[in-house]
């Protein structure tokens, strides 16, 4: 195994430290980085929240979270104790200037003034600006401070601008880390390696050889405990405007000159700016929205979205969009993006459909080649090729798969997507974080769709829980001779 480099000593201050995200994702991710030898023993993780408990009470909660969310085979009592020794807790309402900031100030003052500080906001986005204002007002922002912002960055362009402006008053852009955990997924990052480290792929990565691209993120779960949040968000805001547009950028961008952060982000921004606008005249033909109704998932009967919500709603749980990247490389190639709750399968994948071979040599036209990049589960790459059918004497063809599963050494699970991102903020490496102009470009493209949907210019479809989506979604692809990839593993 390659040498794992330890980061500098740091203070990680988490606002919203008693919430689900912290307990389920952030603390387990930091524990795993300690286990890998990347976190020094003099690092400190300082939780803050309005919950009035002492350090012992917080440590007990953290220990329970590690026992619940860290697999037994990588959870060591000795390492858990070491990790818990890094924890501190401060009762604090970060949105109020007159809250008691003295305890946080006191803890931070115990470290050298040039120590790295990361402020992680695991709170509602509308609170980000006020917390930043109070950090500044209590002289807690230093030249080596960074702030990590959880998505969503707004619900439209106006709210995104307000959030970014509020944070930007106190943190310059190079200290702002907008996290998108999809970019922390190893298989998403592998898109760059697959494209640019393999000449065989790079040579065919354009409209000359590619017929269409599909990007899918589907879940079998419903909205469950997130119903109140989800009903103000919906599938387009929750997944497409951020996560899946970022995946599209990695698929469609031109080769950056280097892996330096702004070089990569400039290449992604160029894709976002090249997305063809979806207008009131085209929104009905280029998009589909739907809600799930009662059905069967995994052999269990489940209620519909409106039943779970307990009230009428115009919020989509399924969204599909046909996007066009108006660059010479992608002229005429549709990019299909879809996301769903209560789908038949839990899967995130990219499917590249290549053009059919222009030959009559084998009688029937050969099937088109497909490249399937499995983001989750069963991370890997599958290439579907045409071969001679060995069961027949005649020279007929069938498809065969070259299937590579990407595994960690020793059979260990893949690192959670938060693990690298949390420490990249410590390292000061923003390459996998979202720059402000990317956020704004994504909203410019998505907002007209959301506005048209809110005005019911695209009828709301339905689909049964446990299916792959509404029938209307199939016709979105059929009119270009495509169909959804549903041979998922």
Structure overview:
The chain is α/β, with parallel strands linked by helices and 489 residues long. It has helices at residues 20-35, 55-69, 77-84, 102-109, 128-137, 157-168, 186-196, 199-202, 227-252, 261-274, 283-286, 305-309, 417-427, 436-454, 471-478; strands spanning 10-15, 44-49, 87-91, 116-121, 145-149, 176-178, 210-218, 287-293, 295-297, 300-302, 318-324, 334-340, 347-354, 370-376, 380-388, 397-405, 460-464. Strands 16-15-14-13-7-12-11-8-17 form a nine-stranded mixed β-sheet, with helices on both faces. Strands 3-2-1-4-5-6 form a six-stranded parallel β-sheet. Strand 15 and strand 16 form a beta hairpin. Helix 1 (20-35) crosses helix 2, helix 5 runs parallel beside helix 6 (157-168) and helix 10 runs parallel beside helix 14. It is globular. The mean pLDDT is 92.
Main sheet record: 9 strands, mixed
Mean pLDDT: 92
Number of strands: 17
How many helices does DSSP assign?
A: 15
**Percent in strands:** 15-25%
Shape: globular
* Oligomer state of the chains in this structure: single chain
Question: Which secondary-structure class do the elements indicate?
Answer: alpha/beta
Q: Would you identify the regions where 5 or more consecutive residues have pLDDT less than 50?
A: none
Helix content: 25-40%
Distance between the termini: 29 Å
Radius of gyration: 24 Å
Strand order of the largest sheet: 16-15-14-13-7-12-11-8-17
Give a short synopsis of this structure:
The chain is α/β, with parallel strands linked by helices. Helices cover 35% and strands 21% of the residues. Helix 1 crosses helix 13 (417-427), helix 9 (227-252) packs across helix 14 and helix 10 runs parallel beside helix 14.
